[in-house]
């Protein structure tokens, strides 16, 4: 179907030279109350340039103006031809909106569809969104742990469909920022908002919704556009309708994934831009949109992981919300929805509750999905064996399951065949290298050049994403260019740890050393590479991190040192042999760090590491004191204080009111128990 611009161009082509000049003269005057186009723009303009000037000046009124001018110059046949197409602004807007809604609905449903093609409205589970924010100077898993320990408190919650609505004591916000850790559901939230609008269920006062994920804007970051051209590039429906102004009706721009932005957003030095038709770089357009200088009436919704939120100055945001993921009751709802067999659902819920690490991680919807996939499979095949209790076990099972699926589905192998074929090993090793190198750079999404830098061929990457679909994704349904990513940050952290472990076992290279090197001595004279040095490097780096960004990576790396876990990866990993001796040395090293570390808060991840190594001796010692009633806090060592804090925070008991006097009323005790007090609403 021809666009309005093409229809107008063909109409002007039918005018002779003199008629065309007369037509342009009329356009310089006021027509139907619309200001004329300056003579300087039209004097030497050809037909295509005239069409462009008309749409910029009259926008959706262009056809109406054209018919009026053609009447003035007695071109009645052309007027009659134009009368067959919609010319009233309301008609054109309705048609354009309908086309946009239809296309957005189709794209989102294509992305969201699950294995059994259930639509989003059936699989969507309400997630917890609160007004306001929490601090973001910690690894996201620490933030999840903190949130999971807080008792239910009266917080102001908000539903995604109400984000741009006024509430008592607050005007309707124009610019909203939503924070949330990786995998918590921000993108699905924006898709649900868009789908509800497209299906006519919510926010029907909005004329147009324009979802523009940062991962897609990154692809065009070298190009120059005006705001109008940028919208036309991504939403051709508006171009086809000839809409060149967006200040006459309500529009929402959704910028999902600020943390994935590779545009230089400089709010201090970027020039001010107010003209929606002026071409410039994409970063200048975005900066001025967010500042409110460009199209100040537009509503903006920006989603981001917490650490990247400070890229936007606070004065540019009217309201901040935070996605908290699943509450404890919502976790149960998720598993009961996921499994039709309620007995199986109950078994899985009970098992997850027995592992503090797993229960905490289930605040993240993506982790619930990983756990459900693994536990469903393991329950069918374990033959009375134990279910995975640690994070490392869970992620190893997840990787093994994906490898088995690949072998059966793509390679025609049987369930009983070895799941680590040469192709699977190659894929896993390549993805591990990519995961580690991009994790070091802080990247969660990857473009063609990122893959090439890691030695992955683009065609190979497409194969990997098609085969390991639940691990590595290629996204091109909603976006015009291909983007790759792991399904969740934790999957990337696990594969990065696996890569570091494999590299050391296979070549003796410690990738965590300041300058990864192997000995220059001839092989016969070299000492056997020391695994303990690798683990010590990892512990040291994790403790040096100001925000704990290596916490989860460290848990995975240490978990991979256990022979029981290495057996699960038999065929991919060489078993290290003297694992128990090295592990004991690592355990002692971690305990030494706990003793030296004055902050119980910073030691909490080290206790999680001890759990991954199956060592609970410090906890058990304090637990015995607590059980016998003989705990004397006056004589506790720093390590024992840290163990007490860890036990209290991991107990699963409601910390609504914490009785400090039960332990000690001293200032020293107050400082040591600060993490517990912070997690409580009230301390006695």
UniProtKB/TrEMBL annotation:
UniProt key word Nucleotide-binding: yes
Highest taxon listed in the record's lineage: Eukaryota
Keyword vocabulary terms for this entry: ATP-binding, Cytoplasm, Leucine-rich repeat, Nucleotide-binding, Repeat
Domain NACHT: 174-308
Annotated GO MF terms: ATP binding
Location within or outside the cell: Cytoplasm
PANTHER family linked: NACHT, LRR AND CARD DOMAINS-CONTAINING (PTHR24106)
Listed name of the protein: NACHT domain-containing protein
